[in-house]
Amino acid sequence: MEYQCNKCQFLELMLNTRDGVTPFGLNCLMCDGVMYHVNWPRDERLPNFVELLRIQRRIVTPIMRVFVDALPTHQHIQNAAKEHVERWWELEPALGGGSMSERWPTREAAIEFFIGEWTKPGSPTILPISEYLKGLRL
After folding, report:
1. How far apart are CA 122 and CA 131, in angstroms?
2. How far apart are the first and last CA of the chain?
3. pTM score, whole prediction
4. Phi, psi angles (nearest 5°) of residue 128
């Protein structure tokens, strides 16, 4: 899958291991722009791309990223949930409904809620290629 920045025109090839929805827009790695999904007809789902890399001896660059299914064990999701709860714990939401501290008995309960919401079946996330390949031998 290809994503191109609307500001600096950086073009990133994203590997996709999953059969599901992927985001239309992402934060650009090179600037503060937004990268949009482009060249849709060239999209290819590669669930076994590691084997393809091994066979074709393709070079993996450290900047490459991979779409994977979001899991509660992904550290970046746990960190994002903690940061989200800490930021909004005492604040009243714009649409009403009370603050988080009024809706959940503890911060930990709120964190678990958001981790669950963000990792429902079919939810995508992005991992750096280095994290995805940890423990694999090419």
Report:
1. 20
2. 22
3. 0.69
4. -65, 145
Tokens 């714990």 map to which residue? 89
The Cα 31–Cα 28 span in angstroms is 6
- Residue 66 contacts residue 87 (beta carbons within 8 Å): no
pLDDT at position 132 is: 76
Cβ atoms of 34 and 28 within 8 Å: the answer is yes
Q: Please, how many CA atoms are within 13 Å of residue 16, restricted to the half-sphere of its CB?
A: 19
Residue type at 13? Answer: L
Give dist(CA 46, CA 105) in Å, integer.
43
- When pLDDT is averaged across residues 46-73 and rounded to a whole number, the result is 69
Task: Read off the DSSP letter of residue 51.
Answer: H
What is the pLDDT, as a whole number, of residue 116? 97
User: Which residue type is seen at 78?
Assistant: Q
Domain ranges of the chain: 1-70+122-138, 71-120
**Residue with token string 């501290």:** 101
Alpha helices in the chain (DSSP H): 49-56, 75-88, 100-103, 107-118, 129-133
